[in-house]
Design goal:
By secondary structure, this protein is α/β, with parallel strands linked by helices. It contains 8 helices and 7 strands, in the order βαβαβαβαβαβαααβ.
């Protein structure tokens, strides 16, 4: 498969967190096709290793590492392993993240009687669930950045790309913790861009709209494959009328990493959403 943009990453080491998932495994393959040596990090090392093997089968250089992005010491240890095995990090893609049912309400709107009903309302959300979602998305971006940006400072051509979400622009119903956490990721992206602006590191983010992944497929489709009501609402609010495909994120990622095309771009959060963020519903 050919990359949509001719970004040359030969001689660079790229690190991708959450690389055992649908979108981040795709990112890893794209970076490898661009010439980078890729470190695939995931708590599920077996999943990351499977995608690393696919990259190597295509002729690329890749290695999988088990990493808990919520463990600072582990992130630092893996960073040293990557440096020893592939070289110092030039590109970091912070893709680890996700939601949790404990931080999700059953209904979109509060209705009279829900407080005492057998339904999970806003008042029933577990603090531990909300904390987990915030930590996974925000600390799961901050801690790997601490570990790998330490290898970038003072070197030219280094770049960080965070994965935010449409939720950061306008929160979706039912998932307040995930929406808030992704808003934090967008804000953190801007903060990092300023903080590292004189250290040779550009920091940007992509904000995917709606893509079908293992995490959300149960929310979007019934077991028989028919769409759920939530899918109908999503597609009705997406002017292009469909879900995105994983490969439709590739061009944005490669553009933001391209030192010729994007050398003066830092601190942006780029929506890739089929027009969702532009549509008022009217």
């Amino acid at each position: 498969m050919k990359n949509p943009i001719n970004t040359d990453l030969h001689g660079k080491v790229a690190v991708v967190t959450g690389a055992g998932g649908v979108l981040c495994s795709s990112f890893s393959k794209v970076l490898a096709r661009a010439g980078a040596k890729v470190a695939l990090l995931d708590l599920n090392e077996a999943a990351a290793a499977g995608f690393a093997a696919e990259i190597e089968a295509e002729g690329g250089v890749a290695k999988a590492y088990k990493c808990n992005v919520l463990d600072k010491d582990m992130c630092k240890a893996v960073a040293e392993q990557v440096k020893a095995g592939l070289g110092p990090c030039d590109v970091l893609v912070n893709g680890a993240g996700g939601n949790n049912p404990r931080a999700t309400t059953d209904k979109e709107y509060y209705e009279e009687g829900d407080l005492d009903a057998d339904t999970k309302s806003f008042f029933d959300l577990e603090a531990s669930g909300v904390e987990f979602v915030f930590n996974l998305n925000f600390l799961g971006t901050l801690l790997p950045t601490q570990a790998f940006a330490a290898q970038m400072v003072g070197r030219k051509g280094c770049s960080i790309v965070n994965v935010s979400s449409m939720n950061a622009f306008c929160p979706l119903t039912k998932i307040p913790a995930y929406s808030g956490a992704k808003a934090a990721v967008s804000n953190f992206t801007q903060w990092l861009a300023v903080h590292f602006s004189r250290a040779g590191i550009r920091v940007n983010a992509i904000a995917p709209g709606f893509f079908v992944t293992k995490q959300n497929e149960k929310m979007l489709f019934h077991d028989d494959g028919t769409p759920t009501p939530r899918t109908g609402k999503i597609l009705a609010a997406t002017p292009m009328g469909r879900f995105g495909k994983a490969e439709e994120l590739d061009g944005a990622l490669l553009f933001l990493l391209n030192e010729e095309a994007a050398s003066f771009i830092t601190g942006v959060v780029l929506p890739i959403d089929g027009g969702f963020s532009a549509y008022s519903g009217v």
